[in-house]
C-alpha cells in the first residue's frame, strides 16, 4: 500500500507521522499512546517544536521518538525559519504532518512541501472562533455549544477544509479554563481517531470538502 506521499507502507508500522508542538504535548501523548497499536495505521516518527523547552520534546525523548527544536531565534529572519522548519520536518519523510498545539502560522512554502497532508486541531467548531483564543471567544459570545475541529491546513488562519468535529456543551458556570479542559479531552480523542483514519483510508480534498477514502 502507498501513502499520499508515495511511500510504501510497512503494515507493521503504518504511515509516518511528524508532530509539530509548542507546549506540553497532551495531544502528542495521545498519538504516542495510539501508535503502538498496528490497527491505528500510523506511527509518530518525529517531533518538531519551535520552543527548545517544550514539554512535547521531553515526551518524544521518553518515547524513543526523534525530536528537534527549530527556534525562530536561531534564524536570521522569518523566511529563514520557514525554510529551516520545512527542512527539519522533511528529514523524517512524513506521510502526514500533524499540528498538535503548534502556535505558529506555517508559510505557503512549508505547505507546498506537504500538499494537503498537514492537519491541525483547533479548540472550537470552525468556522466559528478561529485564531489563538477560540475558547475565550466562544465563551464571551455566549454560545451554548462549542467543541473542537480537525482541519487541513491552508494559507489562512484556521480556514482549511474541515475533516472532523466534536461538540462540547458550554455549562452555565464555565470559565475559560474549565471549558478548555473539557474541550481538550474531546480534542485528543478526535485527533487520534481522525489521524488514524486518514492514515488508513487516505484523505481527498475537493474545494471546501475533505473526504476519507
Automatic annotation (TrEMBL):
It catalyses: N(1)-(5-phospho-beta-D-ribosyl)glycinamide + (6R)-10-formyltetrahydrofolate = N(2)-formyl-N(1)-(5-phospho-beta-D-ribosyl)glycinamide + (6S)-5,6,7,8-tetrahydrofolate + H(+). It is an enzyme of class 2 (transferase). Its EC number is 2.1.2.2. The record marks 158 as: Raises pKa of active site His. Residues 16-195 form the Formyl transferase N-terminal domain. Belongs to the GART family. Catalyzes the transfer of a formyl group from 10-formyltetrahydrofolate to 5-phospho-ribosyl-glycinamide (GAR), producing 5-phospho-ribosyl-N-formylglycinamide (FGAR) and tetrahydrofolate. This is Phosphoribosylglycinamide formyltransferase. It comes from Isoptericola chiayiensis. The lineage of its organism: Bacteria, Bacillati, Actinomycetota, Actinomycetes, Micrococcales.
